[in-house]
Design goal:
The protein is of the alpha+beta class. It has a domain of 151 residues: Ubiquitin Conjugating Enzyme (Roll). Helices cover 38% and strands 15% of the residues. A four-stranded antiparallel sheet has the order 1-2-3-4, with helices on one face. The protein has a two-stranded antiparallel sheet with strand order 5-6. It comes from Alexandrium monilatum.
Length: 252
């Protein structure tokens, strides 16, 4: 267990936020197992042409005794069709292969080695089901045209055991609850709008701006200044400097 803890700690220190560690709840059968290490492997430079930002992969250890039967791999159903299952098989096969090799100090469980393998085989894992790989002409990070790759296909199959069974009566109850919430929300919005309109009307009658300032009544002098005639306005110079003085020029 100490060797496993040391390797998991090393992976966490190396990849920081990319790695999440977890274990069974205290008191559960077999505690602390299963122990899991999840890494959200970021897209490496070699996969820059792929529309896939990261590849989440979870390593699960089910017992303290190292061996192929003690480990398994999980990939979430973010990818189309059976691709997640194929990824799990490929990574699990490599992990078990690594466990069978001669190991150095601190490599009893080969966690980091296998995670390195996932990153270096990022594109290979995405290509495991060629039928789901599509291409198009897009742009790179600098805006230059390039051929890009994306994954298309049916959604990954869901685990039937995890599906919630909802009968017609429960569906009807949820529908009625939703309608009641929507009705209450709409009525509250209407009431709020009515209050706001009423406050604006009262403020307008009181001669107030929307920000609360009272409308100021202009004096006769200010009104006269705003309503000058064209003749009065034309009496002002456009330039601040006086007119140039021109001396008469004598004809020679």
């Amino acid at each position: 267990m100490q060797e496993l803890q040391a390797e998991l700690k090393s992976a966490k220190e190396r990849w920081a936020k990319e790695v999440e560690l977890s274990k069974a709840e205290k008191g559960a059968p077999g505690y602390p197992f299963p122990v899991a290490c999840t890494r959200y492997v970021p897209r490496p430079e070699s996969a820059a042409a792929w529309d896939c930002e990261e590849l989440p992969v979870r390593f699960v250890v089910r017992s303290a005794e190292p061996g192929p039967e003690a480990v398994s791999v999980e990939v979430p159903p973010f990818f189309p069709g059976e691709l997640p299952a194929e990824m799990e098989k490929a990574v699990e096969k490599e992990w078990r292969k690594q466990l069978g090799k001669k190991k150095g100090k601190g490599e009893l469980w080969m966690v980091e080695k296998t995670l390195e393998w996932v990153e270096s085989h990022f594109v290979d894992l995405l290509r495991l089901v060629p039928a789901y790989v599509d291409t198009y002409i897009g742009c790179d990070d600098l805006g230059a045209s390039m051929r890009r790759y994306t994954l298309v296909g049916p959604a990954a199959p869901e685990d039937e055991d995890e599906e919630e069974e909802v009968d017609e009566e429960e569906q009807e109850r949820r529908l009625q609850e939703f309608l009641a919430r929507e009705q209450a929300r709409i009525e509250a919005e209407i009431e709020e709008k009515f209050k706001s309109d009423e406050e604006k009307r009262r403020a307008a009658e009181a001669g107030m701006f929307e920000d609360g300032q009272k409308v100021r009544q202009l004096s006769k002098k200010e009104l006269a200044e705003l309503n000058k005639s064209r003749k009065e306005r034309s009496g002002h110079r456009w330039r601040k400097t006086g007119p140039k003085a021109h001396k008469p020029v004598k004809d020679e």
